[in-house]
Write a sequence for this structure.
């Protein structure tokens, strides 16, 4: 038994020693293989200038293209309302009927007065004509003729006054039909049948708003407006062929409004309390998706930059001073830090104004292995987004390329 136990103990020790020796050999071979693998591999993109459309997103609110408050112009009792609240009405459509009885009577009376004065005018005119012929042969005195001529002019004035009274009565009678001054969508009615209204009262009977097209008013800082004008004047930015800035909308729920709009004008004064100016854009609104007072975000096209240099944000870091920097593969395939200047973000990329040029290779993948001064092996970065077409407001990453 003791001999068997000793033999088992010796066999276990031999197996353990063999495992240790084998493990040491594998580590040595692994280290040797790592030494022979060469410099670390990094993914790079090659900087290529591209044409992009720069945009600016600003908050704004919608406002109606036309708005009109409906008010009565004569006194009376509302007999009937002729519209449905919230419906579309046409210009000239009758909205309310005010009791016309008293105005009809006044109109009839004015017409009767006109007929009386016209009848009197005919008699006076004939008398004045006879006296004109008789005064020539001295059959009547000059005074009698002058009195007849004055009576004729007085009768003519009475007829003109009566005609004016008839027109006034006709207008007041027409005002008993309260009509829509503009076409659009009418809101709720503030009065019901049987209500007493007065001419030119302060409270509106209803409000009509034209919603197609519709305005969108946004605010922009005066500093941004000056910068934009300077870039356009210097040629750093260019407008499109039409010379008009196009605008698109992002609705409150984050969805895009399907129809584009156009920037019409900017306010001529700067708000002293906010330092901003108001920009007004106009949008088609056939489906009346946009309603007055809605909060939206307007994306304005500032201009087109022909030679923009974009660097994906994942490739830009900050040094201890807070300056933006990138890792560039330079001469001899060595990594060198490069401080850059960035203006703004364009989608998922930075727009670089200084520090980079065409052909520079920027490290995007393997930054943890790309220490300054180390030699690296470059391969094209595989996850770079595809370039956007000219004029797009979305960023386009520089095309990936092999080392030159």
């Amino acid at each position: 038994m003791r001999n068997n136990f000793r033999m088992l103990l010796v066999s276990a020790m031999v197996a353990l020693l063999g495992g240790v020796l084998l493990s040491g050999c594998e580590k040595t071979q692994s280290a040797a293989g790592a030494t022979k693998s060469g410099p670390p591999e990094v993914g790079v993109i090659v900087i290529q200038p591209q044409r992009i459309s720069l945009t600016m997103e600003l908050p704004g609110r919608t406002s109606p293209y036309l708005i009109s408050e409906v008010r009565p112009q004569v006194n009376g009792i509302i007999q009937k309302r002729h519209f449905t609240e919230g419906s579309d009405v046409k210009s000239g459509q009758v909205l309310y009927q005010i009791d016309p009885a008293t105005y009809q009577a006044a109109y009839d009376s004015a017409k009767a007065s006109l007929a009386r004065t016209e009848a009197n005018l005919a008699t006076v005119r004939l008398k004045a004509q006879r006296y004109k012929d008789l005064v020539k042969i001295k059959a009547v005195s000059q005074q009698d003729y002058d009195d007849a001529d004055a009576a004729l002019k007085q009768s003519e004035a009475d007829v003109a006054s009566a005609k004016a009274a008839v027109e006034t009565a006709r207008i007041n009678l027409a005002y008993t039909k309260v009509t829509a001054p503009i076409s659009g969508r009418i809101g709720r009615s503030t009065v019901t049948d049987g209500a007493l209204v007065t001419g030119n009262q302060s409270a509106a009977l209803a409000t009509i708003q034209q919603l197609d097209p519709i305005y969108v008013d946004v605010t922009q800082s005066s500093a941004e407006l000056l910068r934009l004008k300077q870039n356009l004047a210097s040629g750093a930015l260019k407008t499109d062929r039409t010379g008009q800035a196009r605008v698109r909308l992002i609705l409150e729920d984050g969805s895009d409004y399907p129809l584009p709009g156009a920037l019409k004008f900017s306010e001529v004064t700067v708000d002293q309390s906010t330092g901003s100016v108001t920009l007004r854009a106009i949008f088609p609104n056939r489906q009346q998706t946009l309603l007055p007072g809605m909060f939206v975000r307007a994306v304005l096209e500032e201009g087109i930059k022909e030679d923009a240099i974009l660097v994906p944000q994942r490739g830009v870091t900050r040094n201890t001073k807070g300056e933006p920097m990138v890792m560039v593969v330079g001469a001899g395939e060595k990594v060198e830090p490069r401080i850059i200047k960035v203006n703004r973000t364009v989608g998922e990329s930075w727009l670089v104004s200084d520090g980079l040029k065409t052909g520079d290779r920027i490290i995007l993948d393997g930054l943890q292995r790309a220490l300054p001064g180390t030699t690296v092996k470059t391969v094209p970065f595989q996850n770079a987004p595809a370039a956007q077409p000219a004029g797009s407001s979305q960023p386009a990453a520089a095309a990936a390329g092999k080392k030159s």
The longest strand covers residues 50-70. The two ends are 76 Å apart (CA to CA). The CA atoms of residues 266 and 279 lie 4 Å apart. Helices lie at 2-36, 101-136, 142-174, 222-234.
